[in-house]
What we know:
Blueprint: H1 20-61, H2 66-104, H3 107-112, H4 116-120, H5 128-137, H6 142-155, H7 158-169, H8 180-218, H9 223-234
Amino acid sequence: MADPAPSLPLNITDRPILATAEVISLAEVAARRAEKFGQLIDTLDAGIAARATDASDSMARAGFDPKDQRAAADKAAATARREVATNSSDTRWAHLKELNAAADSLATTAQLWASPVSVLARAGLGTPERTNYQQQLTGSGIVELKNAALLAAATNNKVLGAALVAVIDRMPARSRPFSAHDLADRLVGEEVRGVQSAIAAVKTAAQRAINRNREWEAGRSRPLDRLKLAIKDKD
């Protein structure tokens, strides 16, 4: 008995599908949350610095030399950091969980907006208009299909474009009269790039906050994390 043909995994998630406006709005919210988290860290640092300054000033008023003043400041800062880290843990992680939840909520949306072709292919699904276009175009010649593609691009007719992509998808690759990617990019490319950019912005906001928290907890910068994030931003 022949082995059954392998099936491709769909990687279906339980995340909701967000509309374009919702994704862009979520990116704006995530940016504000990341900024708020950065302000929280700045406030914590300011409190630690203030305690260190108080300790140094106290030693100065008591007549101790600068070396002892610096030692007292360092000791006070270390003690304050441990206390602040413990006391702020719940608040900091609440912020991070919100940002991670925002990034995780885009899993399904990111799959469905992976490329202009995949987005265009959904246009008019189940509508009589899409069905009629496909019926009319099935069996059409190269010239007719190319002219229909030009018409779809010129009139921004996404449903016609989707029908054309469905028809040429059944043709041998070398026989296709035009590139499905080129047509899809003309019809929905700008919108797709906007959504993809917003999705990336949400993920970047979450990662930036995570990196900031890691650095704060460690009390030092993490150059590799910063480099990875910079590369993602550039990409």
